[in-house]
């Protein structure tokens, strides 16, 4: 047994709208079948995952988060700058961060990638005093996220968020927002604003399609009000990763830090979890903050 890696598995039983328990059981069985040394610990409340990860970094070789983007976000503060690799087995509703790591939703394939142990040092982000791995969203993006919690829990992934988007259409008003970055400021009516370390949000909406997790920059996409008909017309471009072609309504940029100031409180999500409503946010990239495991053979 000497020289074998020890894995600490951290799981949030409430992840995936409560569906993660089945994923956890499947992960445990696969780890046993593959002869891995592991220990499981379930979270019981806010801040628990970070504390578990922080303690585990001193005793285990690899930390494994089983869940979605929210679970990864919970684990994140305990992993930053530790040098210990974070493996992820998707079991949430959106599972967006793993897309950037080329980790599939198939549980056995995801476990195989974790056990293969290919690592990369990547950036994280920070909004006010909260860290994020994948991204944050303002306006319509966050309103859709909030609506997703009112949808039939049998739906998951992209379909869940499409249903939530349909539910939100026509109910959200654009907000005057001032964005300051790269030495300049712009103020305009804003339908949505997404800041991405990863490329997708909402289970597959490619709002920051050119983002890279190791370039020390955050990608910023701003969409101006465009009406329901035009939104539906241009929606396929979001799925195809060509939102930059909607030049009349969408603008894409990159910055190491930015300030977002809204005229009135605007809904915000952080890694797919609601962050409340506020009027001022400081956002910045945190370079080389996290070591992650992924399938880095197929893409870079």
**Low-confidence runs:** none
Mean pLDDT: 90
Report how far apart the termini are: 33 Å
Q: Number of DSSP strands?
A: 14
Q: Helix count?
A: 8
What is the element string, with H for helices and E for strands?
EHEHEHEHHEEEHHEEEEHEEE
Structural features, described:
With 300 residues, this protein is an alpha+beta fold. The chain has two domains: 6-124, 3-Layer(aba) Sandwich (Rossmann fold), CATH 3.40.50; 130-286, Tumour Suppressor Smad4 (Sandwich). The chain is 26% helix and 36% strand. It has eight helices and 14 strands. It has helices spanning 20-33, 48-56, 69-75, 97-100, 107-116, 140-148, 157-168, 227-240, and strands at 6-11, 37-42, 62-67, 85-90, 119-127, 130-132, 135-139, 175-181, 184-190, 192-196, 218-223, 250-255, 257-270, 273-293. Strands 1, 2, 3, 4, 5, 6, 7, 8, 9, 10, 11, 12, 13 and 14 form a 14-stranded mixed beta sheet that branches. The protein is globular, with a radius of gyration of 19 Å. The two termini are 33 Å apart.
């Amino acid at each position: 047994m000497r020289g074998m890696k020890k894995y600490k598995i951290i799981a949030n039983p409430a992840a995936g709208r409560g569906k993660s328990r089945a994923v956890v059981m499947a992960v445990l069985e696969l780890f046993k079948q593959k002869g891995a040394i592991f220990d499981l610990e379930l979270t019981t409340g806010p801040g628990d995952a970070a504390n578990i990860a922080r303690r585990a970094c001193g005793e285990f070789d690899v930390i494994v988060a089983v869940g979605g983007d929210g679970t990864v976000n919970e684990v994140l503060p305990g992993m930053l700058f530790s040098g210990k690799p974070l493996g992820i087995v998707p079991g949430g509703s959106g599972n967006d961060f793993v897309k950037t790591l080329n980790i599939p939703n198939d549980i056995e394939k995801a476990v195989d990638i974790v056990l293969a142990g290919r690592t990369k040092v990547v950036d994280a982000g920070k909004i006010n005093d909260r860290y994020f791995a994948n991204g944050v969203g303002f306006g319509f993006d966050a309103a859709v996220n909030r609506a997703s919690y009112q949808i039939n829990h049998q739906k998951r992934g992209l379909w869940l968020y499409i249903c939530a988007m349909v539910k939100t259409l026509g109910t959200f008003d654009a907000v005057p927002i001032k964005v300051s970055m790269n030495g300049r400021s712009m103020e305009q009516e804003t339908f949505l604003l997404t800041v991405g370390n990863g490329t997708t949000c909402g289970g597959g909406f490619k709002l920051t399609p050119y983002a890279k997790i190791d370039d020390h920059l955050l990608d910023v996409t701003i969409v101006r009000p465009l009406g329901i008909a035009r939104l539906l017309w241009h929606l396929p471009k979001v799925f195809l990763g060509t939102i930059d072609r909607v030049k009349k309504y969408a603008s894409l940029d990159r910055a190491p830090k930015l300030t977002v100031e809204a005229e009135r409180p605007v809904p915000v999500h952080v890694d797919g979890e609601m962050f409340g409503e506020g009027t001022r946010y400081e956002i910045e990239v945190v370079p080389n903050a996290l070591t992650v495991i992924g399938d880095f053979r197929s893409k870079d």
